[in-house]
Each structure stands twice: as structure tokens, then as C-alpha cells.
TrEMBL record, chain A:
Membrane topology reported for the UniProt record: Multi-pass membrane protein
Lineage: Bacteria, Bacillati, Actinomycetota, Actinomycetes, Kitasatosporales
PANTHER family for this protein: GLYCINE BETAINE/PROLINE BETAINE TRANSPORT SYSTEM PERMEASE PROTEIN PROW (PTHR47737), GLYCINE BETAINE_PROLINE BETAINE TRANSPORT SYSTEM PERMEASE PROTEIN PROW (PTHR47737:SF1)
This protein's name: ABC transporter permease subunit
Keywords annotated in UniProt: Cell membrane, Membrane, Transmembrane, Transmembrane helix, Transport
Listed transmembrane segments: 21-39, 94-116, 123-141, 147-170, 191-217, 270-289, 301-322, 342-362, 422-438, 470-491, 511-537, 581-609, 621-638
Single GO BP term: glycine betaine transport
Localization terms from the record: Cell membrane; Membrane
Xref: CDD domains: TM_PBP2
Cited PROSITE patterns: ABC_TM1
Automatic annotation (TrEMBL), chain B:
Domain of life, source organism: Bacteria
Claim: Signal is one of the keywords in the record: yes
The keyword Nucleotide-binding is assigned to this record: no
Signal peptide (UniProt feature, chain positions): 1-23
Protein name as annotated: Glycine/betaine ABC transporter substrate-binding protein
From TrEMBL, chain C:
Protein name: Betaine/proline/choline family ABC transporter ATP-binding protein
InterPro entries per UniProt: AAA+_ATPase (IPR003593), ABC_osmolyte_uptake_ATP-bind (IPR051921), ABC_transporter-like_ATP-bd (IPR003439), ABC_transporter-like_CS (IPR017871), Gly-betaine_transp_ATP-bd (IPR005892), P-loop_NTPase (IPR027417)
Organism lineage string: Bacteria, Bacillati, Actinomycetota, Actinomycetes, Kitasatosporales
A GO MF label: ATP binding
Region (Disordered): 354-391
Keyword Chloroplast attributed: no
Entry's family note: Belongs to the ABC transporter superfamily.
GO cellular component: membrane
Any one Pfam family match given in the protein's UniProt record, by short name: ABC_tran
Biological process annotations from GO: glycine betaine transport; response to osmotic stress
Basic and acidic residues composition-biased segments: 378-391
Signal peptide from the UniProt entry: none
């Protein structure tokens, strides 16, 4: 933990804060001096004392048996979950059939035309190309399956999120009640959502869609509420002064004023739904994710890539088009008349239908097999070459396997044994101290309770194992991310070069990282850490760069006028002023790293990630759910411990 | 306030109305992707190992090209696959390594799953060392001597002990108990997925490093990395009854097929073909090797096998 | 008071007050209700009130009438409560206590529908920060008030178009607010308020956010509109010059209270207290004061028959010009009757500020009555005064 937060505590805290921090430290020390001897005498053990754990495996096992036995008979399932599940299946099926009926030409044309109308010609071309590439890679049908699932999941998330956001945007009480929940859901790794849903709905598309909705709705709700609450009060007052009814105010002013946030929410929801739709292949989502998952099983990096590229393309296209649509709406371009717009949309629709019919008449509804390009083979050869030459025995620097070995031996092992060797109460104490120093006493309390929850669940050791991986990964991420971020902030050229790379890495589903890292780093915790670093790096770099670039130019100018060298400017002006952004980068880094370290259970990361995978694989609710809850707790602890008092978090992938 | 109560009442009654329309048994829902183009569709569960993919690939090829079905495949882990099979979300599991608990629940109690006969392949799980290592140290093949080699088998992940590499969490394994009960100086390291495990084993083999791994036969990797089994205390009926006290080898299991009961009854030609499907370890390995090592797509591999083994599969057709 | 309740409002429609405000309080803070009701609390100074109760009185016991067709200016520095006051008029901010009537109808007693009706048709407001809808074109912004009333699209657009032309924005109908300059945006805000053809226009510091030149243009625009349409206006400003330029009458506010209410001339000529005096010190008095204030009775018939004639509402600076040109005292003539004379001494006295305009012979001034700290008295005086004029 010290590696993460020590710098933030040391760097230029103003005098007053230092004073307050000191007071907090004294208070904690006092509390510790009183409590520790008592606690230690009562439960003297290094690890979490057995007397304080609750064994849930029996009741959870019974619950899971009960659900399986009653799933086809109990009214709760027949009359409630059954209908939900039915509705999901029906709607996914409907969308899927429409997509298939439109054929590849129709879908591509429709997508390109929609992109053209909402985002301009360039993006329309990109969209068309992206869809054609999906076909070219032989992934047309899986792409359509994922798309069908996405459409339903995104629609449901948007409706649900917008309704929640509306409630929270219009009522203070709802907002206060909802906000901590949404904040917490935001930091949870996708994997933690899967088990409970699977338990109720069983493996399959309904479970996948619902897990996706639960994962993707919070950003929509958050941003809707933010947008409604952040509306220009002056405008609202003016609108009220004209004698509007509450409904008129909502429809003609509040919602249109929040349209930027609403579109950003849509954008976020789509991105999160896509990443979840891929992870949900573990519980039977089908589609592209399933292809990646199957390719993983046969160590076929090429095939995994062939399925991964359409995912990335979908992600980039959806991201760009919704973002561009948002910019357009937010912009001040002259209003085109309604009739012209209707005409253009109508024209687009006609064109799309024409393309679909043409393809159907030409008998080419399915993507022609002859047009499929097999990229798996060359990719695999390249990967083989890479692993053969990089894995070990590279002169001087050693192979990647050697690095992984050293990293495991010299960083991960000592960190893990250090953490696990700490007396349990001292871990709580450290958590409390850090959370309180950085945040408020409420955040500290949440963090301590969450940490204690882990102990009570009886997964203390493996949680600390996971924690050690997270800490190591975060440390590496921050070192690399801050360095890159500083470089990008200081040079436009570096930033321009980095931007597309960051975009792609950020939209890439977490799954895609796993196989190459195994090929390079072997099995174990090292590849899990490596995957986590790669996944979290883009966000950290981006936030750092933005933070540094947004530093008040006047402050920089005055520093320059005093003759500060560029190094001095960086150290004395930019970094201290960008402190909120840097703290945010740490917070985001921690959250993202945790998500991937958990998935690292699939490549030998062990600990909680393995337990979740085990729970899913064996249908063992006791192991899986306990691990899932522990992950939730760990996520809370990490988030609260790294959360500065002024919450200024952007949402994932923003 | 009154408005709120009224709307709440309206909501509740609407919900009642909605749900009152009838029961919806979600255990009877098929995949939304099934039957998409109006053809007869069969959904097969593919497990994560390549042997299972080989079964499914050949079955799929025959169903599609000989019987005109459309086949969807879903990758599901073993235990959840039983659940999905029971719900009819998949129609058949082509290769099962023995799940007595699930068999009791679904086949005997709920009768939602029917046995589909033997696959013809006998599976065996065990501990293996690479043959190049066994040749150098012939006595490593007996578990009693394993502790002697613990030092050589150490990795960063296993800490101070020797490493016993285990695979996917979905596989049947007693390794932790075995290591404890046989007093071995080893640490079980879970690769987390078979893919990761295979990648690791091939890396070791490339450098002729020694390793000890949980593995199973039939498996195509034996062709690429020859391995020798380490003898564990012999298997006796019931010696693995208590998972905590296991101290014996894994049994040899004749692999089974399972079909969804409804599908077995009314699945027509497809069900008949899947019931008849029976081939040898050799056949399966051939297809598996094409998929995993030559990186053919399962369809291409199946086509190659089908083209050269017509007599075998002719017998399966209804 | 009698002016409110007696038939005064009904006798001559022309003179009935459009807005009549009486003992208005707006207190922010916990349990704000108790403050106006408790004489002990009302007597407290603002700082004391806050420390005792945690409440802030933004509007303290304010009373005034707005007459039909006049431009009534409320002026004060920031924090004086003037913006809160104008919002209370249409209950954009709910007053704590007091009475407000529009055309004799009680505003505070209105139900929601009636209140909406008031805002839709009778009083519309122009805001300091414009409050335009950024996603709508200029035309649709102007038509917004009509849309809210439920007017059909074609009709409201046609009407909006006229208004847009009236405020000088022809050709910009399809632009978005973001593409306009501040002055143009405020013209849109003005047009939006005018579009619904309200009885009263409320302005809340409409020109404070504009730069000086544009501000002058906009002031001219308001003067022109008022001249052309004679619409009643309530105008909030912190700019004394603006207040003097536009206002028929001015209420000067400080700490939530009206410290003085009167014509510009009265405010400048006879400040009610040191605060007002300090406020108007820099004002070029000769441009505000009229000869009516500076004149004295003619000393002789000769004096009453000679010299240049000026009207009583001519400013002192104009009279100075006339006197300087002819070298003799000027006569103040109204309807051919000589009211008095102004000589160079009297005029100089105005410029120097020594003449406070209390010449006995002057007609009874619509006198600047100082509003004392005890609001009730101030109100009584004002009312009495107002009543006198009405009758």
C-alpha cells in the first residue's frame, strides 16, 4: 500500500492539511494503542482469527441446490424471473433475426448510413470498413450475435439507467440514496457480477444480458442525474418565469440541456456493455466473446485475434459515432430544417433497404465463404516466433520468462508474504490510516468495514494474495503511466503518436490480453500482473496527460518568467497543480488493475480470481460467491483508500 | 401523497396483470440464436479441451452435411453444461468425465437428462513428467521418489516447494489432497485454464526443463510433448469417496455422452446420430491434433477425418 | 393603505397600480417564517439576525406600487436584495410574508394554474444571463413562451418573426444563441419576453453582463420600446446612471430595505440619508435636476415678464445654457403661466449641491420621502405620498 500512496502524502500538502493529517494520525494512534492490546490478547494470530469468520459454504450450497431444484416449479421463477428471461430471449432473437434478414450488405449499409447521418462522412466510411472487416475475418455471424445481444442490453441499460438517473436528477433524496450505490458499482470488476446472475438464470443469453445490464446501466444513471442536476439554473429559471408546467420544463429544457451528458452516458454504457458482453461468454453469451474464449482454450492466438479484432472494431466504431453525435448535438451549427433532416434520414433508410434487397437477390445474404481471409495462421507464426525469440535467453536483458521469474521472486513473493505476515489488525489499521488521510472518516470507515468483511468471509489469505498482485501491478502501471503521461504532456508529437494506441488498448476487451501474456510470461501471477498493467496503462496515461495539460497557463507563465527550467516547471508547478488529476489516475489505475487481476485467475493468477473462475466452472456457489463478495470488498477498500476528498472521478473509459 | 399511492397501486396491479398472463418456465427456453434460419438446429456444448472440440466438430460436420441440420456450439464449463443441458439450452454433451452428483440430480431425480451411451474413448487422469526427464531419472515415475526431485521442479510460483501444475478449475482434480495425504513436498499451482497450462508445458518442453503436471489422456499434446505417467498408489473402488482423504490414483473412465431428455425423445435423426456416435481414442486424437497443432479450423479438421473414415461414420447414420 | 383596499384601484383605470407590494419579506434560512412575525427579530441588524437565527433577510418589509405605464427602477448594490425582490413578484422565489397584488389580484393566494397564467401572459422577465435555450434557434427561443402557452407552430413562428424584427435581429432567426454576441443574446431574451405581449416587463439587471457601448445601445432600445408601446416595466439595476436614465421612479435598496423611493430628481436632489447622498455624489446634478427645483418665485412682475422661457421639466444644464446666452434670469413657464424664475445663482447652487430644492414657492414636490429604518413608517409616508398624487 505504501508504494501507492506514500508519494501523495508527501507531496506538497498545504500547512493546514498537514496539521489536520497530524491530528488524524494522533487520533488513530490513540485508538490503536487502546484497541490493539485488547484485540491481540483475545485473538492472537497473524492471519484473520478463525473465531471471527463465518462459514457460508453450507447455507450457500443449500441455497444453490434449492434454486436448481425449484427453478422449474417455484412461482418466483415461473412468474417473475421466467418472464424476464423470456423477454430477453425474445428480444435478442428478434434483433438477431432482423440482422440476419438484412444480410451483411444491409447491415453494413445501414450502419454506415446511420454513422453518416449522425457523425459525418469519414466515420461512415470507417464504419462500413469495420463491418466488412468483420465479415472478411469470417466472423460475420458471431458479430451479429454479439450485436444482437448488445442492442438489447444497451437499450435495457439506457432505459433503466435513464429512469434511475431521472429519479435521482429530480429528487434530492433519491440522489443521496442512489449515489453511493452507483459509485460502488462503478468500481466493481465485471467478473464479480456473473455468479449471482448465473445462479438465478442459469448459463445462457438471459444471464449474459442481465449481467451486462447491471454492469452497464450505472454510468447512464450517473450521467443522467449529473446532467439534470448540472443544468444551467439561469435557463431553468427563465423557463419557469414563462409559466411552464413541470412536464414542459423537463421535456423542453432540462432534458435537452442535459443532452451532452445523456449522450456521454450512452457512449459509456455501450462501451461497458461491449466489454461485459465479451466477458459474459464465460456464462454463455455466445458470439464473438465465445469465439475468443474457445480460441483461448486451444491456445490459438490467431483465432483469438480474429475474433478480437471485430470486437475492437465494434468498440471503436460505436465509441466514435456516439461521441461524434454528442459533439454535433452539443455544437452550435445552424439548425437544419426538420423536413430536410427527415428527407436525409428517409434517404438513408431507403438506401439501406436497397442494399439488403440487392444482396438478397444476388443470393449473397450470408457472408460468402470465399471472401474469408484466414489471419490465424500468420498471426500464430508471428506469435510463435516472438515467444521463441523473446521467451528466454535473449542476450544481456534475459527473456520475458526470466523477467517474469524475477518479478515473481523479487516483487510478488515478498509483497505477498509481507502482507500475509502482517497481523490482521495492523492491516485494518493501515487501511484506516490511509483512507482517512486521503479522504474523510466516512471513507475510512467504509474501507475498514469492507476489509473486515473479507476477514469474516474467511478469504483473508487469498484476498491479501490478490491485493499483493494489485499493488505490484499498480506500482508498475503508475511508474510507466506517469512517465508516458509526462512525456505526452510535454510533446505534442508523442501525444499524437500515442492517441490511437491508447484508444485501441482502452477499448480492447480484457480477455484479449490473456493469451499473449501467457505466451510471453508463462503461467502464474506475473502474466496476470502484466495483463493488468497493459489494461490500466491507457487510462493512467490519458488522465496524467490531461491533468498536466490543464494546469493553469498563467501559473506556468509566471514560473517561466522567474526563469524556472523546464524540469523545475514540471516539479514545482505542473505536478503539484495537477495533483487532483494524478490522484484520480491512481484511483482509476487501481480500479482497472483489480478488474484484470481477477480475470488473471484464468492464467494462473490464483487467489480470488481463481476462486471465482472455479465457482463458475464447478457451479460452486459457496466458493464463487464468497470470492465475488470479497472482490467487491477489496474493490471498495482500494477505491476508498485512493479516493481524494473532492470526488472528481470520470467514468471508466471516458 | 395520494398520487404516489395511486401510481404505486397501478404499478403493482400492472405487474400482477403482466405476470398473471401465465407462467414462464425459463428452464424450457432455447438459445435466442437457435433455429435462426428456419432450419432444424442442434446446440452442442463444447468443453474447453480439444478432445471435446474434436467430438463436436465431427458431430457437427455430419449433422450439417449428411443430415442437413444447423449446429450451434456453446462453450460451457462442465458442471454448468449439465445445468444448461437440463434446461435444454444445449441438446447434448459429447464427452463427460464423470460427475456422479449431477448424474444423480438430473438423470435419476429430475429426469431432464438422458444417457447417450459411451463415446468409445476411455479417459484417464494422472500425473505426468516429460519423457526426456523420465529417461534421465527413471525412478521419478514412482510417487515415492517425487520428493527427491522437488528441488529440480521448483518455480517462482511454487515458492520453496516443487511445482505440480494443474489446469482449468473446471477439471476433476484431487491434487491438493493427494499432495497432502502422500506427504509430498509440492505445491499445486493452478494454471487457471487449459490454454495457459498447455502454453506453459510447451515452453518447458522447448527448453527441456523438467516439470510435473496433472494431465489426462487421450490428449493431443502427448504427440507434441511425450510424457510418462508417475505411478500413484493404485486406484481401488471407493478410495476417492472422501475428497479430503484421497490417497490413490485416478480411475480409468469410459467417457459418456448425455442428451437432454426431450431432445433424446424427439430429436429425430440428430438424436439418433449423436447416440450412435462412437469412435476410438486414436480417431479423436487425430482430429484434435489437426485442430490444436496444425491450427486447422474444427470444420476443416472434421472434413479431413470424415473424408478418410467413411466406414466408421456410415454406421452412425440413422 | 387605503389606496389598495378602497376603490382607488378601480376609479380610474389609468392610475391603478399594476403591481402593489406591501410589507414584503423574504427570509432565507431555517424556520424563516418566524422572523417577519417577531418584532424583536425584525428590529435586528442583518449581521445580528444571522448570528441569532441563522437566517438572512434578503427583502425586509418592502412596500411600493408600480403604476401603469411607468418604468419603475429598483436599484442597489449587489446583495441589497433587489434581484430577490423582483423574483418575488411572480413567485419565482416564494416570499416569506407580505402582500403582492397584480391589478388588485392577490398573487400569493394564486394556485399553480393561476400562477402559470400570470407568468404566461401578464408578467415576463428578462434575465442578466439571458437564460436562452442553447439547443434552439433564435426564432424558437423567441417563440418559446408562445409554445408553452400551447400556440400552434406556424402561428407562433410568425409572431416570433415580427418580434425578432422589432428588436433588430432580422436574418439571424436560424442561428443558435451560442453564435450570437452578448448584446444580440439579450435582444433575443428581450424578444422572448415581448413575444407573449405581457402587461409588465420585468428586467433583472439585463445589461450588467454587456460591455459599456452595447449597454448604452440596449438602454436606448428599452427607452424606444417604452416610448413606442408604453408598457409598464420594472427594472432592476446596480448602475445608478442606468437607473437615472431609464427610471420614472427609483426605489433605492440597501440591506433588503427601500431606503428611498422617488423620481430621479428627488433622489439626486434630496437624498434621504447619508448612504443615498454618498451614492449620488458623483452624479452630474445639472443633468438630472430640473428647473422646477431650482426656481424661486419671481421677485417682481418685471422679472416674471422678461428673459427666456423654459419648461418646468427642463434640466438645469439646459437652463444654464439659456441663462448664459441671454445673461438674464430665465422664466419657468408652464401652459403660458409663469411659475417662477431661475437665475444664475440658483442654477449654480444646484450644480454646487448647495441648493437642495426646498424653495418654499416650489409646488409641492412629489417629495422624496426618506425611508427610515423602521420600515412601516417609510411605507406609510410613501403610501400617503403616492395616495396624494393619485387622488
Amino acid at each position: 500500500m505504501a508504494t501507492v500512496t506514500a508519494p501523495t502524502v508527501r507531496t506538497g500538502l498545504p500547512g493546514l492539511l498537514k496539521h489536520r493529517a497530524l491530528a488524524k494520525l494522533v487520533l488513530i494512534a490513540l485508538a490503536a494503542a487502546v484497541l490493539i492490546p485488547v484485540v491481540n490478547a483475545r485473538w492472537a494470530s497473524g492471519s484473520w482469527p478463525d473465531a471471527l469468520t463465518v462459514d457460508l459454504s453450507e447455507p450457500l450450497g443449500r441455497a444453490s441446490d434449492w434454486i436448481i431444484d425449484n427453478r422449474d416449479s417455484h412461482p418466483l421463477f415461473l412468474y417473475f424471473f421466467g418472464h424476464i428471461s423470456n423477454a430477453v430471449v425474445l428480444s435478442v432473437r428478434a434483433v438477431y433475426l432482423v440482422l440476419l434478414a438484412a444480410g451483411w450488405a444491409g447491415v453494413t449499409a445501414a450502419a454506415a448510413l446511420v454513422a453518416w447521418r449522425t457523425a459525418g462522412l469519414k466515420l461512415a466510411l470507417g464504419t462500413g470498413l469495420a463491418f466488412l472487416t468483420c465479415g472478411l475475418l469470417g466472423m460475420w455471424v458471431p458479430t451479429m450475435q454479439t450485436l444482437a445481444l448488445m442492442v438489447v442490453a444497451v437499450l435495457a441499460s439506457v432505459v433503466l439507467g435513464a429512469l434511475l438517473g431521472l429519479a435521482a436528477g429530480l429528487s434530492d433524496r433519491t440522489y443521496r440514496a442512489l449515489r453511493p450505490v452507483l459509485d460502488t458499482m462503478q468500481v466493481l470488476p465485471a467478473f464479480a457480477y456473473l455468479l449471482p446472475v448465473v445462479l438465478v438464470f442459469g448459463i445462457g443469453v438471459p444471464a449474459a444480458v442481465l449481467a451486462t445490464v447491471v454492469y452497464a446501466a450505472p454510468p447512464m444513471a450517473r450521467l443522467t442525474a449529473l446532467g439534470l442536476r448540472g443544468a444551467d439554473q439561469g435557463v431553468l429559471e427563465a423557463v419557469e418565469s414563462l409559466g411552464t408546467t413541470a412536464r414542459q420544463r423537463l421535456m423542453t429544457a432540462r432534458l435537452p440541456l442535459a443532452r451532452k451528458e445523456l449522450l456521454l452516458g450512452l457512449n459509456q454504457t455501450i462501451m461497458m456493455a461491449l466489454s461485459m458482453a465479451v466477458i459474459a461468454s464465460v456464462i454463455g453469451a455466445g458470439g464473438l466473446g465465445d469465439r475468443v474464449y474457445q480460441a483461448l482454450a486451444s491456445v490459438d492466438v490467431g483465432a483469438a485475434l480474429a475474433a478480437g479484432i471485430p470486437i475492437v472494431l465494434l468498440a471503436v466504431v460505436l465509441d466514435r459515432v456516439t461521441a461524434a453525435a454528442g459533439d454535433r448535438l452539443g455544437g452550435d451549427g445552424p439548425e437544419t430544417s426538420g423536413r430536410l433532416r427527415a428527407l436525409q434520414w428517409g434517404g438513408a433508410a431507403v438506401l439501406a433497404v436497397a442494399a439488403a434487397i440487392a444482396a438478397r437477390l444476388a443470393g449473397r445474404l450470408d457472408w460468402p465463404e470465399a471472401w474469408v481471409v484466414n489471419i490465424a495462421e500468420p498471426v500464430n507464426r508471428a506469435v510463435d516466433w516472438m515467444t521463441a525469440h523473446l521467451y528466454s535467453g535473449v542476450p544481456y536483458i534475459g527473456g520475458t520468462a526470466d523477467w517474469a521469474g524475477h518479478f515473481t521472486t523479487w516483487v510478488l513473493d515478498p509483497l505477498r508474504s509481507g502482507l500475509q505476515g502482517l497481523p490482521w489488525w495492523s492491516v485494518l489499521l493501515i487501511v484506516a490510516t490511509l483512507a482517512w488521510l486521503i479522504g474523510t472518516w466516512q471513507t475510512a470507515l467504509t474501507a475498514v468495514l469492507a476489509m473486515a468483511g473479507i476477514g469474516v468471509l474467511g478469504v483473508w489469505q487469498s484476498s491479501l494474495d490478490t491485493l499483493s498482485q494489485v499493488l505490484a501491478a499498480v506500482a508498475v502501471t503508475l511508474v510507466l503511466g506517469l512517465a508516458t503521461g509526462i512525456a505526452a504532456a510535454r510533446s505534442d508529437r508523442v501525444e499524437r503518436l500515442l492517441r490511437p494506441v491508447l484508444d485501441v488498448f482502452q477499448t480492447m476487451p480484457q480477455f484479449v490480453y490473456l493469451i499473449p501474456v501467457v505466451a510471453l510470461f508463462g503461467v502464474g501471477r506475473a502474466p496476470a500482473v502484466a495483463a493488468a498493467v497493459v489494461y490500466a496503462l491507457p487510462a493512467v496515461v490519458r488522465i496524467t496527460t490531461q491533468g498536466l495539460r490543464q494546469v493553469d497557463p498563467a501559473a506556468l507563465e509566471s514560473a517561466r518568467s522567474l526563469g524556472a527550467s523546464s524540469g523545475q516547471q514540471l516539479r514545482q508547478v505542473q505536478l503539484p497543480l495537477a495533483r487532483p488529476a494524478l490522484l484520480l489516475a491512481v484511483n482509476q489505475g487501481v480500479v482497472l488493475v483489480l478488474a484484470v487481476v481477477i480475470i488473471g485467475g484464468l492464467v494462473g493468477g490464483g487467489a480470488l480470481g481463481y476462486d471465482v473462475v472455479f465457482g463458475l466452472a464447478q457451479g460452486d456457489l459457496a466458493t464463487g460467491l464468497v470470492a465475488g463478495v470479497a472482490i467487491v470488498c477489496l474493490g471498495l477498500v482500494l477505491d476508498r483508500v485512493t479516493q481524494p476528498t473532492e470526488r472528481r472521478r470520470t467514468t471508466k473509459g471516458a | 401523497m395520494r398520487l404516489r399511492t395511486t401510481s404505486a397501486m397501478a404499478g403493482v396491479s400492472a405487474l400482477l396483470l403482466l405476470t398473471g398472463c401465465g407462467a414462464a418456465d425459463m428452464t424450457k427456453q432455447a438459445s435466442p440464436f437457435a433455429n435462426a434460419q428456419g432450419s432444424k438446429t442442434v446446440t452442442l456444448s463444447v468443453q474447453s479441451w480439444v478432445g471435446a472440440q474434436a467430438n463436436v466438430a465431427v458431430a457437427q460436420y455430419l449433422l450439417e452435411h449428411e443430415l442437413g441440420y444447423r449446429v450451434d456450439t456453446v462453450q460451457v464449463d462442465e458442471v454448468p453444461a449439465w445445468d444448461a443441458l437440463s434446461q435444454g439450452r444445449v441438446d447434448a454433451i459429447m464427452e463427460d468425465w464423470g460427475h456422479p452428483e449431477q448424474e444423480q440430480r438430473y438423470v435419476k431425480d429430475k429426469k431432464t437428462i438422458a444417457r447417450g451411451g459411451e463415446l468409445g474413448v476411455t479417459g484417464h487422469i494422472g500425473w505426468f513428467v516429460p519423457t526426456y526427464f523420465a529417461k534421465k531419472h527413471p525412478d521419478v515415475t514412482n510417487w515415492k521418489n517425487l520428493n527427491k526431485y522437488a528441488d529440480e521442479l521448483r518455480t517462482p510460483e511454487s515458492g520453496g516447494k516443487g511445482q505440480l501444475l494443474d489446469g482449468s478449475p473446471s477439471y476433476v482434480t484431487n491434487d491438493k489432497a493427494l499432495v497432502k495425504n502422500l506427504n509430498l513436498d509440492y505445491q499445486v499451482v493452478f494454471a487457471g485454464s487449459e490454454a495457459a497450462q498447455i502454453t506453459q508445458m510447451r515452453q518447458f518442453a522447448k527448453e527441456k526443463k523438467p516439470f510435473l503436471t496433472y494431465w489426462y489422456a487421450p490428449q493431443w499434446l502427448f504427440k507434441k510433448v511425450p510424457m510418462t505417467e508417475v505411478k500413484l498408489p493404485p486406484y481401488k473402488e471407493g478410495c476417492d469417496a472422501d475428497p479430503d482423504k484421497v490417497a490413490c490414483a485416478y480411475p480409468h473412465t469410459p467417457l459418456q455422452k448425455y442428451l437432454n431428455s426431450d431432445f433424446a425423445r424427439s430429436g429425430g435423426e440428430a438424436a439418433a446420430l449423436l447416440k450412435n456416435f462412437k469412435w476410438t481414442t486414436e480417431d479423436q486424437n487425430q482430429v484434435a491434433l489437426m485442430i490444436a497443432d496444425q491450427k486447422l479450423t474444427p470444420e476443416e479438421a472434421a472434413k479431413k477425418w470424415v473424408d478418410s473414415h467413411e466406414s466408421t461414420w456410415r454406421a452412425w447414420l440413422p | 393603505m387605503s389606496t389598495l383596499t378602497t376603490p382607488a384601484a378601480t376609479d380610474t383605470a389609468v392610475d391603478a397600480p399594476v403591481f402593489s407590494v406591501e410589507n414584503l419579506w423574504k427570509v432565507f434560512g431555517p424556520k424563516a417564517d418566524r422572523v417577519p412575525a417577531d418584532p424583536e427579530l425584525t428590529a435586528l441588524a442583518p449581521a445580528e439576525l444571522r448570528s441569532r437565527t441563522g437566517c438572512t433577510a434578503a427583502v425586509r418589509d418592502v412596500s411600493f406600487d408600480v403604476r401603469k405605464g411607468e418604468v419603475f427602477v429598483v436599484m442597489g448594490l449587489s446583495g441589497s436584495g433587489k434581484s430577490t425582490l423582483v423574483r418575488c413578484l411572480t413567485r419565482l422565489i416564494e416570499p416569506t410574508s407580505g402582500r403582492i397584488a397584480i391589478d388588485g389580484e392577490d398573487v400569493l393566494g394564486m394556485d399553480k394554474a393561476r400562477l402559470r397564467e400570470l407568468r404566461r401572459h401578464r408578467a415576463s422577465m428578462v434575465f442578466q444571463h439571458f437564460g436562452l435555450l442553447p439547443h434552439r434557434s433564435v426564432l424558437d427561443n423567441v417563440a418559446y413562451g408562445l409554445e408553452v402557452q400551447g400556440m400552434g407552430k406556424a402561428e407562433r413562428r410568425a409572431r416570433a418573426k415580427e418580434i425578432v424584427a422589432k428588436v433588430g435581429l432580422e436574418g439571424m432567426e436560424q442561428r443558435r444563441p451560442g453564435q450570437l454576441s452578448g448584446g444580440q443574446q439579450q435582444r433575443v431574451g428581450l424578444a422572448r419576453a415581448l413575444a407573449v405581449d405581457p402587461q409588465v416587463l420585468l428586467f433583472d439587471e439585463p445589461f450588467s453582463a454587456l460591455d459599456p457601448l452595447i449597454r448604452r445601445d440596449m438602454q436606448e432600445e428599452v427607452v424606444r420600446l417604452h416610448r413606442e408601446e408604453g408598457r409598464t416595466m420594472v427594472f432592476i439595476t446596480h448602475d445608478l446612471n442606468e437607473a437615472l436614465k431609464l427610471g420614472d421612479r427609483i426605489a433605492l435598496m440597501r440591506d433588503g430595505q427601500v431606503v428611498q423611493l422617488g423620481t430621479p430628481e428627488e433622489i439626486v436632489g434630496s437624498p434621504a440619508d447619508d448612504y443615498v447622498r454618498e451614492f449620488v455624489r458623483e452624479v452630474p446634478r445639472e443633468q438630472v435636476m430640473t428647473v422646477r427645483t431650482a426656481m424661486r418665485p419671481p421677485e417682481s412682475a418685471d422679472e416674471a415678464g422678461r428673459g427666456p422661457a423654459v419648461a418646468p421639466d427642463v434640466t438645469v444644464s439646459e437652463a444654464i445654457e439659456a441663462v448664459a446666452r441671454t445673461g438674464t434670469a430665465a422664466r419657468v413657464v408652464d401652459d403660458g403661466r409663469c411659475l417662477g424664475v431661475v437665475d444664475s445663482d440658483a442654477l449654480l447652487g444646484v450644480v454646487a449641491g448647495t441648493n437642495t430644492g426646498t424653495n418654499g414657492a416650489a409646488p409641492k414636490p412629489a417629495s422624496a420621502v426618506p425611508a427610515q429604518a423602521t420600515g412601516s413608517k417609510a411605507k406609510a409616508d410613501t403610501k400617503a405620498d403616492a395616495g396624494e398624487e393619485v387622488v
